[in-house]
Model the fold of this input.
Amino acid sequence: MQHIVEQLRLVQQKVSHIITTLGPNWSAAPNIARLITTSESTEPKLYGRDHIMNSIVHDITQGKHSGEVLTVIPIVGPGGIGKTTLAQYVYHSGQVQQYFDVKVWKCVSLNFNANKLIEEIEKYIPKVDGESTTDTAGELIGQRLRNKRFLLVLDDIWDCSSEDEWKRLLVPFKKSQVHSNIILVTTRFQAQSQIMIKKIDHQISLKGLEHEEFMELFLDFIFDDDQSREAQPDLLLETGDKIAQRLKGSPLAAKTVGRLLKTQPDLVHWNRVLESKEWEQIDGKDDDIMPALKLSYDCLPFQLQQCFYYCALFPKDYKFDREELINFWIGLDILHSSRGENKRVEDIGLSHLTRLVGHGFLENEGKNDGSACYIIHDLLHELARKVSSRECLSIESQLNSLQVLPSIRHLSINIDGTSVKDRLTLKGCIYAGFQYIGSEKLRRHCRELIGIVPIVRA
Ligand SMILES: Nc1ncnc2c1ncn2[C@@H]1O[C@H](COP(=O)(O)OP(=O)(O)OP(=O)(O)O)[C@@H](O)[C@H]1O
Ligand SMILES: [Mg+2]
Done:
């Protein structure tokens, strides 16, 4: 045992050293990679956004912007408030389908790079006759959209740092000879929105849902139908109302806390939630829903907590393959039968996965190459990183923290843009990352680190 602890201490020192060598421009994983969205919403119903949705659809299809070739409309609001969901519903509305000749959905996320975005967007725009193979992506977009009206959604912009970079992105989209083209943007950040728009009145600030609409959404997450809701005693519903008032109109909080209340629709459980100390952790920001998410996590059974907790080792934009996730848990040795049960470990994993989906911590994203795949909303992923921060560390392309706590037991290294084929091999990941590490000194440290970790698990 002493020998193992000694070895771990050595590993910890090495990792600290690597991080120090990387310098302050690298940052620890929180907020690094982000969930990749598509134009399809997983929500069967859009609650409480009828007015704003109709007004956006009306404005972009009924000529309000007909004087301009291109109008940029940013939707701004805190995480989990429903910006992406609203944009998805706008994108698929009947009028929008009819009005625009070309529609493209692009999830931008971190690392805004105009040239890269132009290249990626070009792939989604239908080709026209007579295209030259030597043209750049920007020129191709210009040609293809010349006589077409288009809608481009840029979802989840984080760091378009300069106006020049933003203008560079717009160049190919301004060549259209048709007016009323629209770029709809979603972002959490007001500063990003200001870089993008000329007229402030184009911005849409998305706030929490109004109480009545919020209650409808909240109660729908808790109860399966109107009958079971109506059968509940008034006191329980009043307690639910009080809990709802703490959720700041956030649909993500409604979903997560709603599912927590659903597990046990009785007054004792709901009062415990209402009186939880977690609500006192609010950091002064009006839109902070982390306490609500943390509370839901705290109430999960221990085994489910563990399964969720270690998901922090994956990057935020990760699509979890069902088998891969279950094998990951098996590898961590966290799947155990209850006393007296004799289940296969794979079945226990599947049951935990299904329960985590039921609690809203993972979402079923349909199928990826024939196999079921799952995602974690980025705020929930932030929560996983928070609760596991003493034990798990993810190193991504930037690091804020230059210290590795002695308590860290799991390290994941996620390297952007590499073609790491074997994700299950940490060694492979690290070696693949070497080519992106500029200094020979640092590469040497990494090799040494691998040398002293004979058995690694990813
Ligand atoms: N109006 C709504 N009706 C029903 N569900 C909603 C609504 N708005 C959002 N949701 C659900 O709430 C969750 C969070 O919404 P969404 O991802 O759209 O938030 P966001 O503002 O884009 O967050 P982020 O800034 O993290 O990207 C999603 O699971 C979504 O399905
Ligand atoms: Mg979003």
